[in-house]
UniProtKB/TrEMBL annotation:
It holds the Pfam family SecE. It is a single-pass membrane protein. GO terms for cellular component: plasma membrane. Component of the Sec protein translocase complex. Heterotrimer consisting of SecY, SecE and SecG subunits. The heterotrimers can form oligomers, although 1 heterotrimer is thought to be able to translocate proteins. Interacts with the ribosome. Interacts with SecDF, and other proteins may be involved. Interacts with SecA. It comes from Campylobacter aviculae. Keywords: Cell membrane, Membrane, Protein transport, Translocation, Transmembrane, Transmembrane helix, Transport. The gene is secE. It is found in: Cell membrane; Membrane. This is Protein translocase subunit SecE.
Length: 59
């Protein structure tokens, strides 16, 4: 039982050290991830279209 109490005390102490992101930081990270995913998706769509066009011409 002593180990469990020590574990919870140490966990509580560690949680006090955590710095949670501000709302603005979360929003900026969300926007950045959205833009990167959109750009990568468009790039992959373009590559797919080019590859399928080449295969269609060959066949």
């Amino acid at each position: 039982m002593e180990k469990l109490i020590t574990y919870f005390k140490l966990s509580k102490a560690e949680l006090r050290k955590v710095i949670f992101p501000l709302k603005e930081q979360v929003r900026n990270a969300y926007i950045t991830v959205f833009i990167v995913v959109a750009v990568v998706s468009l790039f992959l769509a373009l590559v797919d279209w080019i590859m399928s066009s080449i295969v269609s011409i060959v066949i």
